[in-house]
Design goal:
Layout: H1 4-13, E1 18-22, E2 34-39, E3 45-46, E4 52-55, E5 63-67, E6 70-76, E7 83-93, E8 100-108, E9 111-117, E10 127-132, E11 146-153, E12 158-168
Antiparallel strand pairs: 1-2, 2-12, 3-6, 4-5, 5-12, 6-11, 7-10, 7-12, 8-9, 8-11
Length: about 170
């Protein structure tokens, strides 16, 4: 039996769940090149037991809510001192009565703080990129905080395809 602790260990240690691509962010001229971290949908764990969801294609596809609203959380591992420039999610929303959004959160043992939040999905039935470059505390401090991505999918027909974090190392 896979316990929640073992699943977290597998997610944190799994190289296939998140990958980094070097490359400059559009329109940015910085001393250090920006890097793009992809967080696969399978890395997001349900944060409430009321969520009915599926990760399609044997865990390799999109994360879809099929019953009720669901919060999904994935740990974010970046180098200490890295500067987050942008967070984004790619999703399809085919339900005009539901929505999707993503937030970047940093957490201490007794409290948490939302650092960025994406716009809400528009229900266009097209692949949408919902992004925010407005990060309230962009410098990673692994000594004090744990960083998480939280996705909210509020109903059937709202599916996460990818989560992305653009950052640069100091």
């Amino acid at each position: 039996m896979i316990t929640p602790r073992r699943r977290w260990r597998a997610l944190l240690g799994g190289a296939a769940l998140a990958w980094v691509l070097p490359g400059a962010a559009a329109g940015q001229t910085t001393a250090a090149a920006s890097q793009l971290l992809h967080v696969a949908p399978i890395a997001f764990l349900p944060a409430n037991n009321a969520a009915g969801y599926v990760v399609e294609q044997g865990g390799l596809g999109r994360l879809c809510s099929h019953k009720g609203a669901g919060y999904f959380v994935a740990p974010l591992q970046l180098p200490d001192g890295a500067v987050i420039e942008r967070v984004a999610m790619l999703l399809v929303d085919t339900n005009r009565d539901a929505l999707g959004l993503m937030s970047l959160v940093r957490r201490e043992p007794e409290r948490f703080e939302v650092l960025a939040i994406s716009p809400v999905s528009a229900g266009t039935t097209e692949l949408e990129t919902l992004a925010s470059a407005d990060i309230s505390a962009p410098v990673i401090d692994n000594e004090r905080y744990t960083y998480l991505l939280q996705v909210l999918l509020t109903g059937p027909g709202v599916c996460l395809y990818d989560a992305q974090v653009t950052y640069r190392s100091r």
